[in-house]
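S1.2 Input.
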Amino acid sequence: MNIIQQADAFRFIVNIDKSKGDALAKLEYEFLDKQTINFTHTYVPFRLRGKGYAEALVQAGLFWARNSNLNIKTDCWYVAKFLDDNT
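S1.3 Output.
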């Protein structure tokens, strides 16, 4: 799985299922200030859900945020599950 951070678009993406046209799974974020990131939304196309794409995106986003010494917040219920598991 090739996860790409598109910093200019404030998201992590993975392009999947190209045989049926591009299908984009994404984890979006925003900066609340210079040291605080808010993960706002996770999306995987309906027909591709349940295959681990969302989890991989969240893990990549959290890894990046932690390695960047950012404070992590989330408005996304899916990301919150991972934060609750790691507290």
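S1.4 Remarks. The longest helix spans residues 53-67.
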